[in-house]
Design goal:
Belongs to the glucosamine/galactosamine-6-phosphate isomerase family. NagB subfamily. It holds the Pfam family Glucosamine_iso. Catalyzes the reversible isomerization-deamination of glucosamine 6-phosphate (GlcN6P) to form fructose 6-phosphate (Fru6P) and ammonium ion. The record marks 146, 153, 155-156 as: Part of the allosteric site. The chain is of the alpha/beta class and 243 residues long. It has one domain (2-127, 135-233): Rossmann fold (3-Layer(aba) Sandwich), CATH 3.40.50. The protein has 7 helices and 10 strands. α1 (9-26) packs across α2. The longest helix is centred in the N-terminal third of the chain and has 18 residues, at 9-26. It starts with a strand and ends in an 8-residue tail after the last strand. It binds fructose -6-phosphate. Fructose -6-phosphate binds next to loops.
Amino acid sequence: MEIVITDGADTSGRLAADAIVALLQRKPAAVLGLATGSSPLPIYDALAARHSAGEVSFAQARGFTLDEYVGLPADHPERYRTVIDTEFVSRVDFAPDAVQGPDGLADDIAAACASYEAAIAAAGGVDLQILGIGTDGHIGFNEPGSSLASRTRIKTLTKQTRIDNARFFGDQVDAVPTHCLTQGLATIMSARHIVLVASGTGKAEAVHHMAEGAVSAMWPATVLQHHPHVTVLVDQAAASRLQ
Ligand code: F6R
């Protein structure tokens, strides 16, 4: 695990964007793993700017989002499929349908999760996975207690995650869905390169456990210690508990 302490989230975003641009230059049909939430927004801003400047094209690339709330209506603005379209996909030149997410409205959840895993495998797997990290150490929505061998499945969001995400739902914790579909920890670990970004003191404990704690399902991001190519981009505050 390579840890880079940067002077802020914008710098982290630029560095992550550099890695993605370099990947697309050597492999235009690369498969990207896309996270939602606040942390990756500077990455998407940097990539949109570099696309506008004619420096990078996503025309042959594919994308797979990490997770999705269960039961949010198709037109809900906080549905992750909508969020990733707004924040990133619509600002660059992906081909139609090149970006997919787990179907949080599926009648048959188990079948939807299995077909999502199959779609990622059929695309050749993820070349570069963007990740944020929850204050409780989750990646994707693999909450504490998640199996380190898990694949895409339904999970219950912890109270802490629902509190953390209430800011996207008018500060109404009860408006945050209780369940999600998420790539599993083993799904995430199958990506060839993982780039995790975190900023702010709220992430410091999780970053400390991820990098320096014992590998444990209770701090799911610790599984990344077993991955051969992880780049962690953190600001000073998120790095403040590192020893
Ligand atoms: C989002 C996701 C989550 C977030 C995490 C941090 O797709 O998978 O793991 O990355 O909850 O969220 P932010 O970045 O909003 O602090």
